[in-house]
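Q: My labmate handed me this sequence with no annotations at all. I'd like to see what the chain might look like in three dimensions before we decide whether it's worth expressing. Could you predict it?
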Amino acid sequence: MKLRGRFIAWFALAALVPIAASAVITREVVAGGYQDEYTQARADAERTVRREVGRLTAQVDAAVAALASRDNPFVGGL
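A: Here is what I predict for the chain of 78 residues:
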């Protein structure tokens, strides 16, 4: 390989190493930010779902208790 080819190879390598390093660092920083946002959104969604399941369970329990009562107009005559 001639001297010019070696210079081109070394300069290309010298340019690619910092570019690749900054790309990897940027990817890690951005991915970490998205991971934190995803974790928070998932925790919020889980809390919301648990609250709604609890609310619906209470409504079903109240409806069952009302239907089981002899005072209920739908069931009282049976």
